[in-house]
């Protein structure tokens, strides 16, 4: 629910529409109504840590929220930074998924995972544009991801792994901590990933 709410808030924020609590309850939280405060608190923490955005209630009577950018930025760089920041957020989610799945995932598994986050390859996304192109071309070109063809597959399949830039710019420990935060668990809950991250 937390990652779904984060996605929902980011999409709403693109259109700069104030977000009503009623919409969050109806569209995302649904039957988890009792955990509303906890879900919103966790989503807010992720928005701050990953995207540099803060969820602020602007109308306490009608429970209306907006996202504000809490990153210091030079005037004029703002737009590019915003989109870049969100792409980096998506990249972090993908790197986490690859690491948690044993450092290598088939393309079909990655698309399936992104579907759960309502990010569909092949469909224009309001924030990321052409997601398939962003993931298979941009992130690969920037060396965040590497793709390797899987031999003897028809239609051809390939697998994703971390690229050299990802290895340099983040660590398995950071990624595991991010996943643990998203799931509300201790990083040691995932024993093999934990020992790998500690050894890194």
Question: Gist?
Answer:
Residues 1-197 form the MAGE domain. With 200 residues, the protein is of the alpha+beta class. The chain is built from nine helices and eight strands.
Distance between the termini: 31 Å
Query: CATH homologous superfamily of the largest domain, by name?
Result: MAGE homology domain, winged helix WH2 motif
Strand residue content:
15-25%
Mean pLDDT: 84
CATH level 1 class label of the largest domain: Mainly Alpha
Structure, explained:
It is globular and about 60 Å long. The longest helix is centred in the middle third of the chain and has 23 residues, at 78-100. It has a three-stranded antiparallel beta sheet. It has 200 residues and is α+β, with helices and mostly antiparallel strands. Mean pLDDT is 84; it is low at 72-80. The protein has two domains: 1-69, Arc Repressor Mutant, subunit A, CATH 1.10.10; 83-169, Arc Repressor Mutant, subunit A (Orthogonal Bundle). Helix content is 55%, strand content 16%. Helix 1 packs across helix 3 and helix 8 (172-183) runs antiparallel to helix 9 (191-199).
């Amino acid at each position: 629910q937390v990652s779904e709410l984060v996605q929902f808030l980011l999409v709403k924020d693109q259109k700069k529409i104030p977000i009503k609590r009623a919409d969050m309850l109806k569209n995302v939280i649904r039957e988890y109504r009792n955990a509303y405060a906890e879900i919103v608190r966790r989503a807010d923490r992720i928005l701050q840590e990953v995207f540099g955005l803060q969820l602020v209630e602007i109308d306490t009577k009608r429970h209306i929220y907006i996202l504000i950018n809490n990153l210091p930025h030079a005037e004029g760089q703002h737009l590019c930074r915003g989109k870049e920041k969100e792409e980096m957020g998506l990249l972090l989610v993908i790197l986490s998924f690859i690491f948690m799945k044993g450092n290598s995932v088939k393309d079909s598994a990655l698309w399936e995972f992104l579907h759960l986050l309502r990010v569909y390859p092949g469909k224009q996304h309001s924030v990321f544009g052409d997601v398939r192109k962003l993931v298979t071309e941009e992130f690969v070109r920037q060396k965040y991801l590497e793709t390797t063809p899987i031999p003897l597959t028809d239609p051809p399949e390939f697998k994703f792994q971390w690229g050299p830039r990802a290895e340099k710019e983040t660590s398995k420990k950071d990624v595991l901590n991010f996943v643990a935060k998203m799931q509300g668990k201790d990083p040691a809950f995932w024993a093999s990933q934990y020992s790998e991250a500690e050894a890194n």
